[in-house]
Amino acid sequence: MTTALGIYDAHILLRHSEKLKEALFLVREIVQFYPCMCLRNMCLLEDSSNEFLPSSGVIHLRDIEPKRVAVFLGRALRNFYGRNAENFLLLHASAVAHRGEAYMFLGQHAWGKSTVAKGFLKETYGYLSDDMVALNPRDGLIYPTLPVDISTPLDRISPPVPLSSLFLVRYVPHLTEPRITPLNPHETYLYVVENLLNPKALKGEGLSLLLKVLLASKGYRVEYGDWRVLLKMVQS
Q: Domain tally for the chain?
C-alpha cells in the first residue's frame, strides 16, 4: 500500500503494510488532492516509538490511531521539509473553507488564529489547516495540510479552494464587538511574507504569482474577543 505526499519538494512516497492502512485513513483523505511528484520512498513501520528517520527512509509509529498518526506526520514533515519546499507557499497560518472559498487567519503567536479556525470548524466550515497553510500560487488554491494539533476538529476535510479573504487576527479579552479595518494589498503582502516558512518559493515567478493571488482576495485586520461574533461578521 502506498500514500503520496506531493506538496513538499522531497516528493515522498510512503510505503506501508496492510496492517497500517486504517492508521493512514485521515492522512490519505487530506493528501489525496496533492500533485504526485514522488521520488523518495519512506517505509512506514509500526513500532514502539514515534521516529522520523529520513536519512534511512524509515518512519516508526508507536500510536496507530488515525488522528495521532496524521498529527505526528504533519509535524515531522513540516519541520523537516517545509523550509525547503519551492512549489507551494507554506504559511504559518490557519485556514477553513466555506461554500467553495478559503478564509485564512494570520497572527503572531497566541493571537488566536488557531482558536478562530477551531471555532469555525465546529460550525459548518471545512478543514484546510490548523498551523501551516499550503497555497499553490499557480492555481491560486489553498490545499488541506496535515494537522499539528490533536484537538483540531477534522470532521469535514475540504478539497483545494481559492483564497477569498485573509484576516490578520488578534484576540483582545472582553472585547464585545470585533474591530475590523481593511488591509491594502501592500500590507497584506507584507504580512504574508512575514509568515512564510519557505521564502525560496518566491524565486522566479513565485513572487508575481503570489501578488496576483493576493490582489484577487480581500484582507482585513481584526481584533476580537469571541470567535462567535467574528463568525457572524464573516457570514454576513
A: 2
Q: What is the pTM of this model?
A: 0.91
Question: What is the four-CA torsion angle of 206, 55, 45, 66, rounded to 10 degrees?
Answer: -30
**Is 93 in the same domain as 39?**
no
Structural domain boundaries enclosing 57: 2-84
**Domain boundary at 42, 58, 84, which?**
84
Residue ranges in the chain modelled with pLDDT below 50: none
Whether residue 215 sits in one domain with residue 191: yes
Number of other residues whose CB lies within 10 A of the CB of residue 73: 28
Are the C-beta atoms of residues 92 and 80 closer than 8 Å to each other? no
Please report the pLDDT score of residue 235 as a whole number. 73
pLDDT of residue 133: 96
Coil vs helix vs strand at 82: helix
String of DSSP letters for 13-35: EEEE-GGGTGGGHHHHHHHTTS-
Same domain for 153 and 116: yes
Residue (of 120, 230, 85, 125) closest to 168 by Cα position: 230
pLDDT at 192: 93
Kindly compute the dihedral angle of the four CA atoms of residues 162, 165, 169, 173, in this order, to the nearest 10 degrees.
-110
SS3 76: helix
Q: Give backbone dihedrals phi and psi of 168, rounded to 5 degrees, phi first.
A: -90, 105
Q: Where are the alpha helices (DSSP H) in 20-171?
A: 25-31, 66-81, 113-121
